[in-house]
Amino acid sequence: MTRLVLQRVALGFLTIFLVSVLIFAGTEILPGNVATAVLGQSATPETVEAMRRSLGLHDPAVVRYLRWLGAFASGDPGTSLTTGRPVGADLWQRLQNTFFLAGVAAAIAVPLALVLGITTAIFRDTLYDRLANILALAAISLPEFFIGYLLILLFSVQMGWLPSLATVAPGMGLGERLATIALPVATLVLAVLAYMMRMTRTAVLDVMARPYVEMAVLKGVPPARLVLRHALPNALAPIIQVVAFNLAYLVVGVVLVEVVFVYPGIGQYLVDAVAKRDVTVVQACGLVFAATYVGLNVLADILVILANPRLRYAR
Amino acid sequence: MKRRPSLTGIAGLIVVVLIVVLAALAPLLAPHGEAELVGEVWAPPSADAWLGTDNLGRDLLSRLLYGGRITLVIALAATLLAMVIGCVLGFTAAIRGGWIDTILARAVDAVMAIPTLIFALVLLSVLGTSNPILIGTIACLASTRVFRLSRAIAGNIVALEYFEAARLRGERLPWLMAREVLPNALPPLTAEFGLRLCANFLFIAALSFLGLGIQPPLADWGGMVRDNAGAISYGGLAPLVPAAAIGVFAIATNLVVDWSLAHQAGLRD
User: Fold this and answer.
1) What is the pTM of this model?
2) Which residue, A11, A39, A107, A216, has most beta carbons within 10 Å?
3) Which residues in chain A have Cβ-Cβ distances shorter than 8 Å to B234?
4) What is the rounded distance in angstroms from the CA atom of residue B144 to the CA atom of residue B167?
């Protein structure tokens, strides 16, 4: 089992390496154009040339890639092309904000989705089950910004309970912080809840159709025990996969939600940088997002291995 | 067994057709021009402007119709391109096998390890935003999923006797793809087309909402949400109308795809 886990971790690092190559290559499609993009079309050839030299754009791509990756790994992703500030400090501050937002959303969405998924599986084909399914189908298709603005209109403008803009400052207390991000958290929870719930329900129902569960029914196991003790352990693997997939989605969906609520997170940072063509910031944010995404998937693979007793012993 | 027609599927189909027709006929139906100023900023609905006006005083209904047209056209173009790229590469990988298959599959795995939105943002930051670039970027990213599906389907077909016969006859790759594999792969690929169309539509809306998709003064649903976002503080509904239109189209497409998938499952029984 240790070997399997180590293999997954190694594979994860290999994937992150490949992803870093792809992100670097993606920003290399127009070589040398960074200088022109930042300085604008009206810049004289001399200023462009000076900028290219100061950025080291004359070096071969492989050299620049290795230099970039080395600096990134040692904690310095370079300086912003538009503001001249070091990217590292801004990135770290915003990353904490984003993880806080996504973390709170996940802490609410995951348990809620599991409970809803399991209870709809127990009470399947009842009114409760159908209602939950119809609502879930609607929530899956709605874009995040629709949910976001709807929540703002209801709870912030009409009722005046919560702030519409989630502007957090470094000195805020935890309670105040949680109240400020209540609406973005609710939007994120609604965006990921439905899918997780439906997949949990499907996974549990899938196991319920097996002969050993029928055996348990016939010998008179009560329904709650049947689902929790007999069906759930075998449904764990697909559920873990779905939860990880949705947490990874949460990290991405956070981009849109941050823009809706003007939240100072890494998603907003990335979008601003793309609009200003600040390639250094885009590369750094892209790599951080992708690494988080890959990391969550590797974590899910490891948990699936741990949840499966057949994989616990070396063959 | 006689199958009952699915009510939700038919309802979804009607809504999709209705939206497509309304969007296609935008220049005929729209009471005002796409960029024409008709009144006050964020005016409430009136006889002249049925849904009110937007952040610059343009007619919201007219912009909704025009916006639907451009968003749908770009989503459709990107999806068609993605299907062509994905299917050609997927079929080639399945038919040829060997190192071509390995390289293509690994490359697709690497691209899929990056969240689509993030990769698109990285590409757009360098390439800038114009409609052809938007279509190309979305098509390339969406084609990875089409590749996986078409490779899996073609893998099953390649193992069948009639395909082996065609190969022994000495047919070339284009014939094998178009005449032997494609007809039998068409039903699942049609469902995939619907799913991709819906996903790309939402993706374009999201990019435009971030200000990185379709550029003004062209109206589009995602951009309209962004432009009118300020109205929400005054209790205005202007940003919710285009957002709801996006949601309705996405739900309707999903219902049609569900119907088609259930229909295919029924045929197989």
Assistant:
1) 0.83
2) A216
3) 157
4) 27
